[in-house]
Amino acid sequence: MAIDPSVRATEADLIREAQAGSRTAFDALVRQYDQAVLRLALHLTGSEQDAEDIHQEAFLKAYRYLGNFRFECSFYTWIYRIVTNLCLDLLRRRKSRREDQAVMLDSSGEEIDLLTNVTDQRASANPDRELNRKILAERIREALDKLTPRERMVFELKHYQGLKLRTIGEMLNTTEETAKNTLFRATRKLRTILAELR
Amino acid sequence: MKCELAQETIVMAVYGELPDDKAPEFEQHLAGCERCREEVEAVKALSKVMSLLPIEEPSANLVARSRLRLEEALDAIPRGSWLVRSWRRFGQSIGRLRGAPAAACAVVVASLTVGGVSGFEAGQRSPEVVPAAQTQHPDTDDDSLSDVAYVSSIVQKPNSENVQVVYNRLQPVTVTGSLDDPKIRQLLLLGTRNRLNPNVQDSSVRLLADECRAGHECDDGPVRDALLKALRYDKSATVRLKALEGLQPYVADDVRVRDTVLESLLSDPDPRVRTQAIGLLEPVGADSSVREVLHTVAARDDNPDIRSASRQVLDQIPQVQ
Known about the structure:
The complex is a heterodimer of chains A (198) and B (321). Chain A has 198 residues and is mainly alpha-helical. Chain A is built from eight helices and two strands; from the N terminus they run H-H-H-H-E-E-H-H-H-H. Chain A has a domain at 1-99: RNA polymerase sigma factor, region 2, helix turn helix motif (Rna Polymerase Sigma Factor, Chain: A, Orthogonal Bundle). In chain A, strand 1 and strand 2 form a beta hairpin. Chain B contains 15 helices and three strands. In chain B, strand 2 and strand 3 form a beta hairpin. The relative contact order of chain B is 0.06. The interface between A and B is large, with 43 and 40 residues.
């Protein structure tokens, strides 16, 4: 995400004002990033409630620890570091607690088991394209859920959010090389998982 | 370039991360390796499939809800120098104000002598404030400003040094009732937000926490939220300890409570709070997040007793298959 230097100067001023106690300045900072944060959290978690909780926790932490921000990285990276850590915590909790899988219902109210092979969901057999789209989206989510939280996060930030691996490394407090290896593992796993679902 | 290296490079190339200096070697390898060319197509196909999970823009409702909730939470946090800003705002037109809860009137009065601008959230009941405008109160010679709620209007009379100020006054109200009385509960909840008088805040949290420990009608969200907030943000360790006590019955069933207690164990500055948090988490040691935090605390806490206590709890947890 390229930031105009003049905009960055303005943002630096806002940050300093917020650090000095200006709530207005902090609110302005929030407005710059909150939709992007919600978009990331929503796509990662698939849940509006979880996205809202992550939004809340992230900006409250940012407010609480803003004094620790020393301009060593961009504010964007700093806030995303907070958000990604919260998302990782949630993904880890989900994985360990084995939350119930989302269950989809077909038009007659019968459950569709998303993990079994569906023999033919193409348009000629089932004209409900919206249902097909949802089933496919759920399949993809199922595949993503099988990644480790870190693999999932790196894949999300690279594939869906379009960030550079170097930035992803900074956000996840690791190196670009590690992020690269994680992406490679994630793509390998996804290919295997999706091949098994065919 | 060998195929093994090329395989990793393919992912980088498809995702636009191939360094410029590696590109010629990579292209050369592809030109002579059908297997790697197929691999490129396979990775591109994966990328296409994964893109079928669309990124949805957060709905306007979600954005609005999130912003409002954040605003409420930020309003509840004490802000340094708000007193200074109060002095500044006293001489200007009305600032941002939402009213004062009646329950806090008596203790707010003393502090409002400094300027009368409050950051409190709007009370949910109609305030016990009589606005000057509604009573059409004539100019008063009352010198006492100890019960000023807020200044609502300042008008300078033309060609004069006289200024007309309209302000709203607080009327302290006393109520007596049982801790089970919903009105008393609501007032206690408002009392937990009183940053100006730690005694009121302390008493409110203590009473609500005791009610929760005793199992008296504490399943509703606002009471638990108030205790969670006190545990996270209160400056007094005594209040945070009390909040922990009140939350103890919910650690097993409420993930939010458990996660907040975990946060306290990791980051509360007071060792008594961290110690008590360990005690609350002991029954839920089967939760891997709890074990993870206990491991971290056992290795890194500054306090040796806390490190030891964490290790003891970990040792007592049955091995998880």
